[in-house]
Amino acid sequence: MAFWKQFIVCLVVIAAGFAGWVYFVPGAGETLRKAGFSEVSKLAPGEAAPQPVVSAEGQSRRRGGGANAPVLVATQAVVRGVVNDRLSAIGTGDAIRSVVVMPQASGTIRDILIKSGDRITKGQVLAKLDSEEQVIARGQADVALKSAIEKSSLYHNIKSSVSRMDVFDAEIAEQGARLQLQAAELNLERRNIVAPIDGIVGIIAVNVGDNVSTTTPIATLDDRTEILVDYWVPERFANTITVGHPVEATSVALPGRAFSGVVEAIDNRIDAASRTLRVRARIDNASDELRAGMSFNVGMKFAGDQYPAVDPVSVQWDSQGSFVWHVVDGKSQKVRVSIVQRNPDFILVKADLKDGDAIVTEGLQRVLEGGAVRVASEVASSSEPATQ
């Protein structure tokens, strides 16, 4: 059989099956009405099946609500969002002044006058070295000075009997003896190990009887009246942070406590490997609760950059990029946006939007450019009964 004959036979069979379904199946007419067709009466035997008629409701449904029917939508107002307004970094604390005390001479520890944790003042003696040899050297220098002074005084009294050169030599010998005595006294003084700064003593690293040199650490002194915290910030904050900028630091050792401070110093270059900038903050520690070496979480606040913030579900995409639907005077307008930052509750965008602008968040699939829309909140308020 030819193809066109097979095609005609198939059409006849389909039409007969449809007519039989309408005529013999109960509820077939109701099904057609729900599908958008007008009611079709059951066919009498021998009657041709009438053409289905599309109702106005079905036509409206096929056209997506009709050309003039407003689309019901829900909107949310644009709010102002801020980005780059906060900074949090991890840093390490150090005492504002810290010194490792070492002897200025070699010798044996004879006495230790401090213990760990003592608060000391500048110039206080921490320990002493054996000094017998230096005491003898000072005595010898003292005797030599007295002899030189006596000889110089005698030559001055008998200038007429001695040459001017002998008087000059006696004066030079006296000055040399004075310098020798000063050197001997300095060597004796250096047998005392003294504190170069005010501070608190750390663990003492030596004992009485130890033989030490000028490179042997005796103890560490920390002046922790203030704590310096070094931390690193991203490169984008390089031109935002200034000396004196307030900071707030917290420590793991003191949960729930916040310590205020200011930026003390800013490095002069960006680290090429990490693209970060080193910053140093100074934190007051008058209560002596903080220690050198503590880790700190440093927080800073800035004015930041402000952008319009919209609901994440309102952002749509097409071939040209992202956009949102802006409702103006009951009409929908497509506004192009550029996403700046995504947050759980809002998306910050660059766009021609102002605070309070209504942005469509529901019913987006049926919104058209310049199409009429009805805001759900306005419809609900207009349907409420008027109060007397």
Query: Which CATH-level-2 architecture of the largest domain?
Result: Beta Barrel
Unreliable segments (pLDDT under 50, ≥5 consecutive)?
Answer: 39-66, 382-388
From the alpha-carbon coordinates, what is the Rg to the nearest angstrom? 48 Å
CATH superfamily placement of the largest domain: Efflux pump adaptor protein, beta barrel domain
Characterize the largest beta sheet: strand count, sense, and whether it forms a barrel: 6 strands, mixed
Can you tell me about this structure?
This protein has 388 residues and is of the alpha+beta class. It folds into 4 domains: 3-61, no CATH class; 71-82 and 306-383, conserved putative lor/sdh protein from methanococcus maripaludis s2 fold (Beta Barrel); 86-125 and 196-302, Elongation Factor Tu (Ef-tu), domain 3 (Beta Barrel), CATH 2.40.30; 131-190, Helix Hairpins (Orthogonal Bundle), CATH 1.10.287. Helix content is 25%, strand content 37%. Helix 4 (132-157) packs antiparallel against helix 5 (164-189).
Write the layout of secondary structure elements.
Layout: H1 3-24, H2 28-34, H3 56-62, E1 71-77, E2 79-83, E3 86-101, E4 107-112, E5 119-120, E6 125-129, H4 132-157, H5 164-189, E7 192-194, E8 199-201, E9 211-212, E10 219-234, E11 246-251, E12 254-271, E13 276-284, E14 295-301, E15 305-310, E16 316-318, E17 321-328, E18 331-336, E19 338-342, E20 347-350, E21 358-362, E22 373-375, H6 376-383
Parallel strand pairs: 1-22
Antiparallel strand pairs: 1-21, 2-15, 3-10, 3-14, 4-6, 4-9, 5-8, 6-7, 8-10, 10-13, 11-12, 11-14, 12-13, 15-20, 16-17, 17-18, 17-21, 19-20
Helix pairs in contact: 4-5
